[in-house]
Amino acid sequence: MFVLLVILTTLVGLASSCSAPIGPPIVADIGHDAHDAESTTGGDVALLKPQIGEPCRNPTDCQDGAACIGTRGHGFICMASCDQPGALCDDSSVCMALAATPTAVCYIGGNTQTNASCNNNLDCIAGTICAGNPADANEAYCLRACHSNHTTCQENEYCHMFNPNRGVCRTKLGAACDGAEDCTPESAFCTSEITDSALPAPMCTVVACESDDDCPPDGRCHDTLCFSMCSSDADCRFYNGYRCIDHACLGG
After folding, report:
1. Which residues contact 171 (CB under 8 A, 6 or more apart)?
2. Do strands 189-190 and 166-171 pair parallel, antiparallel, or not at all (unpaired)?
3. Model confidence over 63-74: pLDDT tens digits?
4. Is the separation of the CB atoms in 203 and 237 below 8 Å?
5. 222: how many CB neighbours lie within 10 A of its CB?
6. pTM greater than 0.70 (yes/no)
7. Distance from C-alpha of 142 to C-alpha of 112, rounded to nearest angstrom
8. What's the Rg (C-alpha) of the chain?
């Protein structure tokens, strides 16, 4: 009777976990008690603890300076602790504060690829964050993360900071600006004084182009202005109204 009750309880638990929506990662609370393991194996247990990126089962399983965190599709894995949410960790993953842990961790648990749609930061692969559109709560993409004190952006990109703790890599051509002083020499003109349906928000550009050859390598000429090239809306400042139209980031 007891065995049958355990089996039924387990099946109910599994059914609930399959039907319930996936929540944020939580600290692992399953498996053996690591404190008991330490009391019986002595100092050797430290050598056996999972390293960062390795699977774990218990809150105290991981090496010092790491926590056992649940993920979207990889079970529980050890992630390094960090102290500045939003900043990039040494491995270029993003430091995230999670509700279920007392400290932030360098999150490496997502499986949604760069530029793909996402619901929140926990969906995205390491090194990216879920950037949304203030005008459309249903639009968000995993974009390469950056920070003012640590950037992985490429030479033709800059770190667009949404706030002091959150930024993404965007192309310098088409960068947000208030004046020419915000632009780089490669695209030194700011469109802040131009009214045009193709310009939903000011951007850095090159003027008086006649063809794509007059633009930077990542630009396309449209109505005498150079616009950033794109493959999808995620490549553009979609959160400012720009869309990928004919492979150029134009006003949608």
Report:
1. 156, 157, 158, 218, 228, 235
2. unpaired
3. 999 999 988 778
4. yes
5. 18
6. yes
7. 7
8. 23
